[in-house]
Specification:
Helix content: over 70%
Largest sheet: none
Number of strands: 0
Distance between the termini: 50 Å
Strand content: under 5%
């Protein structure tokens, strides 16, 4: 299982490198599709050749590892289609187009609300049905077709899990595009009276720490999504968050200075409170 996790982490790093704010979607999506397909091919070969050491590892792979990879493939393919069909006329037509697609994506999530809640809440009671192979005949639905076509590398619900992750990411992208066409709309909804008065490097530390802790969307939210929310909430710009993270990693001595200072101050406060 560690091998698959390393493959996933390596893919995520590669995708971060191509998903820069200045890179056109028309260039990002084809590169992303190529990278994801290569990883899926390698994973399939390994799974078919070696199998799994236990049912638990099989469930782990098809519930968490494969869906994260497949979701990026679905995301890039749908994103290319959305952008290729996007109106080139005035903003009003574009907003209507984007809002319509958000509704379509949300409709899918609503139609599969039972499984959506099960997956997002981290439930496990039906994992033996949803995420073990050769169980596709239990659910003779459209989603189970993938398992019937490729029973060695699919389960009845791993593709649905991937679709959920992809559609959530697409909705975030479309909402961001809507906000871009209606300047300030998203900011007005999220903007706080609080101001971030520490450095941007400190905020970058916090963002990456939260991402590493997998505290948002059960670990499925990426750096760009988290950064976007912080930017809107605090009305601050972090255009070079990946570069800032690289600078933090290159520090000598204490690298997570801000986080370590927070831990020290919080511990100090608790000690002071106890002494009162």
């Amino acid at each position: 299982m560690n091998t698959y996790k390393r493959m996933l982490r390596a893919l995520e790093e590669q995708l971060k490198d191509i998903e820069t704010p200045k890179t056109e979607i028309a260039l990002v999506a084809p590169q992303g599709i190529r990278l994801v397909r290569e990883v899926l091919h390698k994973m399939r070969e390994r799974v078919c050749h070696e199998g799994f050491t236990s049912e638990d590892s099989e469930k782990q792979f098809f519930k968490h590892i494969k869906p994260q990879v497949t979701s990026r493939l679905i995301y890039y393919v749908r994103l290319m289609d959305l952008e290729n069909r996007r109106p080139v006329s005035h903003d009003k037509a574009q907003r209507k187009y984007l809002a319509g697609h958000i509704e379509v994506l949300q409709r899918y999530l609503n139609a599969h609300s039972d499984f959506y809640r099960y997956y997002r809440q981290g439930s496990t009671a039906l994992d033996h049905v949803y995420f073990l192979r050769d169980r596709a005949d239990v659910f003779l639905s459209t989603e189970a077709i993938y398992a019937l076509e490729d029973s060695q590398f699919s389960t009845s619900h791993d593709h649905m899990a991937a679709t959920i992750l992809a559609y959530e990411k697409l909705i975030v992208y479309l909402v961001h595009e809507l906000d871009r066409l209606s300047p300030g709309a998203g900011v007005r909804q999220l903007k706080s009276k609080l101001s971030w008065t520490a450095s941007k490097a400190s905020l970058t530390e916090l963002i990456y720490a939260l991402h590493s802790g997998e505290v948002f969307n059960h670990g499925q939210a990426d750096i760009r999504e988290i950064t976007s929310i912080f930017e809107k909430f605090f009305d601050i710009r972090l255009p070079h968050v990946y570069r800032a993270y690289a600078a933090i990693k290159s520090r000598k001595g204490q690298r997570a200075r801000f986080l370590e200072e927070l831990i020290f101050r919080f511990s100090q406060k608790m000690d002071q409170d106890d002494s009162m």
